[in-house]
Amino acid sequence: MLFTVKPRPRYLEIEAHGREGIVIFPTYLPGSYVVRELERNIVEIDGVRISKNRFYVKENFRYLVYASSKDQREAISSADYLFINPPAVFPFQDWNERYCVKLDLRWPVSTTLRRDGEYLCADDYETFVDSPIQASPNLKTLVIDDHHEISTVDDLDLTGVAMAIKEIDKEMGTPDRYTFFFRRSDRNYGGIEHYNSSAIVVNWERSDLVMLMAHEYFHSWNVKRYRPKDLELDLERETYSDLLWFAEGVTDYVAWLASTRSGAVKREDSGKYLANAISKFTFPGAKRMSLAESSKTTWIKYYRQDENFLNSSVSYYDGGLLLGLILDMRLRRSGENIFSIFKNIPFRYTFSDIDNYLKSRGIYDLEEMVYSPSSVLLEKLKEVAELQFLDRGNPYLGIMMDGNKVTYVEDGSPADMAGLMPQDIILAIDNVVRPVEVKAQVELLVNREGRVKRVLVTAGRNPGHRVKFTIKGDIAKQLLGMDSLDGTSSMSLI
């Protein structure tokens, strides 16, 4: 199919040439486990609707796309900037045919699509939708080295990013070309991976970019070159996998490891990042959910987190980070490391592929760590780090707050037993307007849905959520190339 795109503020006018028949607009995007219903942005189309995302069209047809999303997973068109994530804009007919786009503008353009005269092309739809397009009269290329660059309209310090990706390249090899598409915005959207690139949008205040960019960079291997066998692309339906702890979580571990070993991030930031991940496995959700289940439920749990998430679920990102740390330490004892896994599994891998390789290296408990309640990771982590639970046994109520609003109530806590609810607004404590404090017994004046209630809470003992870890000695030298690393989590409950 051929597309000609004429951008204007908030809209993309598109002329398409294909075969008479049905065209299909993707329902969700690779790398983002949310059903986005991308057809919702089609404003006009020369065609007959067959279903919510399918249209019957003639050989040549026009359509109009609303393009005002700041999220790099979709598309935005303004008077001086254009970004297109292709599955958010272009439909498909046959996955295995050639797809090309021509932009009706005179701005500098950056993309990983192949240039063919006036067109930007890919030999199949999977490659086409994996190739973002960015354009602006203000577009510039920041060169990291001969193989890596950043396409952006903004400025950023390349030093830390260069250090982290060099650490990864030492193990995995250097790609021919890799592009970070980068932009700052008023919201933090994070990143999304592509085969030879990634697209990253962060807010103006965010300065901790190294681990995020290293994470998306390593995805060019894990998820793009290596991919869970059950994570085959079907852009109209959810695709379930119980291996996101490896695809996403171990990728996060590699990003943390590369950033820490290279010195690209401050030691205190690296320590806090790991400590906060550990802390989340002290909550009730870790006793209820395995990493495998967390992976498979990403569509309804992780990407739709509510105020009860820590009671019911765990993050496969955090779990994979911790599991990667455990596996890396064990593998290094036998002269290998976490990267060795990728050199010994097929490009379309299964759990058995990973498990069989680890068993050949004397690691027999992967199934336990992945399919048991994920709180088991806290015990396994003791092989790597000393863990202290700084608030264990302290008096507590069992809530988190944002200002005077309750944002979380821990299952089984004193607040839970007393009947406090998320979204409750605490007006007064013991008839005095003041911040919540922990005493043996407190009477809270609560606004719940406009009704004022009195709730009596008797303090209990904190099970321990504020974590301090220390990695030292030979383990620290083998893993991190330093004498020691420690960190303390910032998560705590009142």
Task: Characterise the protein shown here.
There is one protein chain. Helix content is 25%, strand content 30%. It is of the alpha+beta class and 494 residues long. The longest helix has 18 residues, at 244-261.
In percent terms, what proportion of residues is strand? 25-35%
User: Tally of extended strands?
Assistant: 33
Question: What is the oligomer described by this structure?
Answer: single chain
Contiguous runs where pLDDT drops below 50 for at least 5 residues: none
Main β-sheet: number of strands, strand sense, barrel status? Answer: 7 strands, mixed
Q: If you compute it from the alpha carbons, what radius of gyration comes out, rounded to the nearest whole angstrom? A: 25 Å
- The pLDDT mean sits at 96
* Mass-distribution shape: globular
By DSSP (H or I, 4+ residues per run), the number of helices equals: 14
How are the strands of the biggest sheet laid out side by side? 6-9-2-1-12-15-14
Percent helix: 25-40%
Structural class: alpha+beta
Distance between the termini: 58 Å
Task: Give a short synopsis of this structure.
The protein is of the alpha+beta class and about 500 residues long. About 25% of the residues lie in helices and about 30% in strands.
SSE layout:
Layout: E1 2-8, E2 11-17, E3 21-24, E4 28-29, E5 32-35, E6 42-45, E7 48-49, E8 54-57, E9 60-66, E10 75-78, E11 81-84, E12 99-103, E13 109-111, E14 114-116, E15 119-122, H1 125-129, E16 133-135, E17 140-143, E18 148-152, H2 159-172, E19 178-185, E20 190-193, E21 197-203, H3 210-218, E22 227-228, H4 244-261, H5 267-279, H6 285-288, H7 291-296, H8 309-312, H9 316-332, E23 348-349, H10 351-360, H11 366-371, H12 376-381, E24 386-389, E25 395-396, E26 399-402, E27 405-409, H13 414-418, E28 425-429, E29 441-448, E30 451-458, E31 460-461, E32 467-472, H14 473-480, E33 484-488
Parallel strand pairs: 1-12, 18-19, 19-21, 22-23
Antiparallel strand pairs: 1-2, 2-9, 3-8, 4-5, 6-9, 7-8, 10-11, 11-16, 12-15, 13-16, 14-15, 17-18, 20-21, 24-32, 25-31, 26-27, 28-29, 29-30, 32-33
